[in-house]
Write a sequence for this structure.
């Protein structure tokens, strides 16, 4: 009887393979022997699943492993050095049976890989983050964890030893969402492999998680980056209590778990994360959308190195600092590249290249705004021909560089004096990929706009002038920097900026005027900002002492705007990484910020 059921279930699974995997044959499936949990553990399944599941699933990727295959024919193969291993592989492949077996082995892996990619039983393996689908590359531990959710009964308990990527990898986002929203996590401890597993690289991280397979996680008892498994024996003494808000909102896009080190850090994050993501455009308020204008390599035909041969500079990351766009106050570099106006030579103009790139976005916005159907190009051109007698062209794009705008340095590390480095730069300047630009305009067309050429009136400002400098002050503030330092490696990832939280203040809100006026005084110096000073009716801060005081007042106001109390503010300032020979972030400066915080306290 069991044999008959097993054969029927085998055929059902093989039928799934045929439906899911393109071009699979019966010969391909001949050697597969599926394990049927429902049959082998019939009584368990009749009761709804396992009461307890304990496991340490494989940490490998489901890819062809030449060590695994060729060791069948040479036991010393896996221990050979790379060159010797390659030579031995080539020698073994001279044998026809081994060569055919190697091709068959790789083909079998491809079949199983495609099955896992497409099977409805494994729906948590390819999340979409920032509009792009991610993949686990068939990480066996991720596949096992998803199966565990199905094997455990409602209310059952599970404990697993898993690679660190499960808790902070982009591709495992949906697994973390399942843990947060569909289970009650009892505890999580992550480890750095300092002698714990001798055969695994010491740089490898892993974690031990225990959860109940029902409910949702409201708070988590956890500790991170431990080096001694003895911590498991007294977890209650060392575990931090992490709120659901911190777990969910620390990384709204990727849902990465923050590797916090103290309860004070958890509490500070909880206060910071109470605010809206800076990139949330669902309300009528301002928002920040970073993008890259030009690529230093791919667009190099639009750059010249001789200033006299150019009409305007092309900025890179080394050409800005916080609230600064030239070397007036700190030692930052002069522009390395320049470019020419469109009127001089459109084929060599960086601004023309930006228009050519951005016209696609304008086309999409018009298509969406007028409920387009069919071809985007055809629909938009027909719409414009009807209203103004000419199709869409790059000339219809209004460049952000026609206005003052915020830019941020792309290269950023937690060990830098400041991780977030932002400035408002003068109109007319363009930027290559070492700088990300915050969009200055959004496309919001009205019917009357469609008759105009160029279509610049469809662009509406995202910020008022005051909101622009408030946003600058917010992203350059110590509290925002504190948050971003926990998220960066060596570059600012755009979605990590957009998902990070700031107080989204505007005219009339507490701390709005305090922050924008100080950010503007710091940034609006020199002839290039004479117009903006008039628009804002402010004067620039130009003496070193005045600039230090004003920036300290801004940082102190930002702590208040975030709702951080004095103890939390003091913790952030004491915890802030300090470099040797800092430009600004000295002990004296931090003391000044705390002094200003106290002065501003209600």
């Amino acid at each position: 009887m069991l044999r008959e059921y097993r054969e029927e279930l085998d055929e059902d699974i093989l039928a799934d393979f045929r439906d899911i995997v393109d071009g699979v044959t019966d010969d391909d499936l001949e050697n597969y022997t599926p394990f049927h949990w429902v049959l082998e553990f019939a009584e368990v399944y009749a009761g709804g699943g396992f009461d307890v599941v304990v496991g340490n699933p494989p940490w490998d990727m489901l890819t062809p492993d030449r060590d695994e295959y060729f060791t069948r024919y040479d036991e010393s193969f896996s221990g050979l050095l790379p060159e010797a291993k390659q030579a031995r592989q080539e020698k073994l492949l001279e044998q026809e049976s081994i060569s055919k077996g190697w091709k068959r082995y790789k083909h079998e892996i491809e079949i199983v890989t495609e099955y896992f990619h497409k099977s409805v039983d494994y729906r948590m393996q390819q999340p979409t983050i920032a509009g792009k689908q991610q993949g686990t590359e068939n990480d066996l531990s991720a596949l096992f964890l998803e199966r565990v959710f199905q094997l455990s009964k409602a209310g059952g308990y599970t404990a697993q030893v898993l690679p660190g990527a499960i808790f902070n990898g982009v591709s495992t986002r949906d697994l973390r969402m399942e843990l947060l929203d569909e289970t009650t996590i009892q505890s999580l401890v992550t480890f750095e492999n300092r002698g714990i597993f001798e055969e695994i690289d010491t740089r490898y991280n892993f974690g031990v998680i225990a959860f109940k397979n029902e409910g949702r996680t409201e708070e988590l008892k956890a500790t991170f980056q431990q080096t001694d498994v003895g911590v498991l024996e007294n977890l209650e003494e060392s575990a931090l209590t992490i709120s659901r808000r911190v777990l969910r909102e620390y990384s709204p896009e990727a849902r990465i778990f923050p590797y916090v080190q103290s309860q004070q850090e958890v509490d500070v994050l909880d206060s910071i994360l109470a605010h809206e993501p800076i990139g949330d455009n669902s309300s009528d308020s301002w928002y920040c959308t970073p993008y890259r204008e030009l690529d230093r390599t791919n667009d190099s035909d639009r750059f010249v190195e001789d200033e006299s041969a150019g009409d305007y500079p092309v900025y890179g990351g080394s050409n800005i600092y916080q609230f600064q766009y030239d070397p007036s106050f700190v030692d930052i570099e002069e522009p390395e590249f320049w470019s020419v106006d469109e009127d001089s030579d459109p084929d060599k103009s960086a601004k023309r290249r930006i228009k050519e790139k951005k016209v696609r976005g304008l086309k999409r916005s018009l298509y969406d705004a007028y409920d387009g159907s069919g071809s985007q190009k055809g629909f938009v051109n027909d719409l414009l021909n009807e209203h103004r007698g000419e199709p869409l062209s790059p000339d219809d794009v209004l460049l952000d560089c026609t206005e003052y705008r915020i830019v941020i340095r792309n290269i950023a590390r937690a060990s830098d004096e400041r991780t977030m480095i932002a400035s408002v730069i003068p109109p007319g300047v363009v930027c290559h990929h070492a700088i990300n630009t915050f969009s200055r305009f959004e496309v919001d067309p009205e019917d009357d706009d469609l008759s105009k050429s160029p279509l610049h009136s469809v662009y509406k400002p995202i910020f008022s002038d005051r909101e622009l400098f408030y946003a600058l002050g917010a992203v350059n503030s110590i509290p925002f920097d504190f948050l971003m330092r926990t998220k960066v490696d060596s570059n600012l990832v755009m979605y990590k900026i957009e998902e990070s939280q700031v107080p989204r203040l505007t005219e009339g809100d507490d701390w709005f005027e305090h922050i924008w006026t100080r950010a503007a005084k710091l940034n609006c110096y020199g002839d290039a900002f004479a117009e903006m000073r008039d628009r804002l009716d402010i004067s620039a801060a130009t003496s070193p002492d005045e600039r230090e005081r004003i920036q300290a007042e801004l940082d102190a106001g930002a702590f208040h705007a975030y709702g951080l109390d004095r103890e939390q503010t003091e913790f952030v300032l004491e915890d802030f990484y300090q470099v040797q020979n800092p430009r600004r972030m000295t002990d004296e400066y931090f003391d000044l910020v705390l002094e200003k915080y106290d002065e501003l306290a209600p």
Summary: The radius of gyration is 29 Å.
